[in-house]
Amino acid sequence: MLRLSRLSIRSVSTIALAALMPALPAMADTVKLTFLGVGDVYNYAEEDGRGGFARLNAVAKAERAANPNTLYVFDGDMLSPSIMSGFDKGQNTIDFTNLVPFDIAVPGNHEFDFGPENFYEKMKASKYPWAAINITNDDGSAIEGLGGVMVKEVGGLKVALIPVAQDTSPEVASTGSLKFLPTVDTAIAAAEKAREEGADIVVGVVQTDMENDRALIKSHKFDLILSGDDHSYATAYDGVTAYVETSIDGQFLTPVDLTVEVGEKDGKKTVSWTPAFRFIDTAAVEPDPDSQKLAEELTKKLDDTLNVEIGTTDTPLDSRRNVVRAEESTMGDLIADAMRAATGADVAIMNGGGIRADRTYDAGTKLTRRDILTELPFGNVTVVTELPGSQLLLALENGVSQVEKGAGRFPQVSGMTFTMDPSAEAGARVSEVMVAGAPLDVDKLYKVAVNDYILGGGDGYAALGGGKIITGTGGGNLVATDVMNYVEKAGKVAPTVEGRIKILGQ
Fold it and tell me: What is the 3 state secondary structure string of 308-345?
């Protein structure tokens, strides 16, 4: 009213004339938003001068300094696995991220490797909020301290962060009785609701595989998706949704700048944007000094404990991810043999996904405690159960049921051999199972050494349940301890790929 009272006759005439002319677009405001996402950060230290929390924290600080309209998000997996997490159950990752806190953090499946209670403790110790809209208690009630959709006003815009966890977590982690709702459906519904409630920008912060990522992108309910879980780096933009798969250990980072134009049309607010992806190789990043100091302190403690030689391998060892999850591996043989030797079991099964160093060792390599704990960082315990051959067969079928996906359930075995047909239907791929040189007897009871994770149904090993527990978690050693003792006692080990797993078609 005040502005109208001051209008001159000339101004009024101009307004009247304008009414007869085509409407001109309203002046647009331009806002630059920056989003930095990261996930799957297991190792606090750099590797070959790249990655690690000191470099990650330096990048996050720089992005926030360059643009106050920056949101820094975590899309799952840091509490485990690593050598250090085997000692502190992931507290080191909380200490590092508290130095440069996230705006929001989504729990990945590895946040539950030490059980829900450990995650709750680490969540309380965090100086930033954790959130996931698809995780509840078993009765459907909210988990104390775990938030939901977060709406933040950034640069005058309402930005909705949709935090979603991987719904297969109960199969691959120790999630207890927690309930996980479908990742894709829950995320899409939340994005739609956020838009209806006035969000200008909708961002998915998700920990899920690329198949689900593609479904989320295809829905076109999100402006931006920042995703973890696949341990790879990728960017995409289909004209509607921008996407970043956020690498591993903070090695490669991509801040996404959205140049947002805010205008008005027919009396309604309009928002449009264009993305710019910036690639950062952290090998070129100067580490954050405070974070680097903490890293050096932890490294010294670990070196004093772990750089102790325990024996030699006379043959090459292979723990590469694509090997331990798809075929017989010399490292898998060594670990399974050590479990069987430590327990006196008839057979042993080790899930390939529990073998983590993803490397090779030349013949003649001196093995250290560090090597073994790098391979086996989860802190799992060797346990023995007594099962009929029929359940042992079902366990093997589960182990090879997703080999084409590189799933961690693939079995590395000792005391038995079997043939696998990867072209057959899942559940009917295993044949010619031999135990101690004799055909598997489906009615005979066998003592089976496994780790406590798969005994509890992890990686889909439900078939291992229901047997007579001979050595439980309270009486067993860490799997890593059994392997270290085995190598130390032998002095020299020489595992070879000897045909424990025969794959048809190869």
Answer: CEEEEECCCEECCHHHHCCCCCHHHHHHHHHHHHHHCC
Q: Please determine, for residue 427, whether its predicted confidence score (pLDDT) is greater than 90.
A: yes
461: exposed, middle or buried (Cβ count in 10 Å: 0-12, 13-18, 19+): buried
Total count of residues recorded for the chain: 506
End-to-end CA distance of the chain: 83
Structure tokens at 2: 């005040």
Token pair in block for residue 156 = 């005058």
Inter-residue long-range contacts of 233-242, CB under 8 Å, 24+ positions, other chains counted? 234/210, 235/277, 237/275, 237/277, 241/216, 241/217, 242/275, 242/277
Q: How many CB atoms lie within 10 A of CB 312?
A: 16
At residue 199, what is the residue type?
A
Residue 20, pLDDT > 70, answer no
Mean pLDDT calculated for residue range 294-313? 93
Query: Is residue 80 predicted with pLDDT exceeding 90?
Result: no
For 418, how many CA atoms within 13 A lie in the half-sphere containing its CB?
A: 28
Comparing CA positions, the residue from 42, 122, 38, 40 lying closest to residue 82 is: 42
Say how far apart CA 233 and CA 217 lie, in whole Å.
Answer: 16
248 CA to centre of own chain: 9
At residue 258, φ and ψ (nearest 5 deg) are -105, 120
Phi, psi values for residue 380, rounded to 5°: -75, 150
How far apart are the C-alpha atoms of 342 and 416, rounded to whole Å?
Answer: 16
Is residue 73 classed as helix, strand or coil in its secondary structure? Answer: strand
d(C-alpha 159, C-alpha 104), whole Å:
13
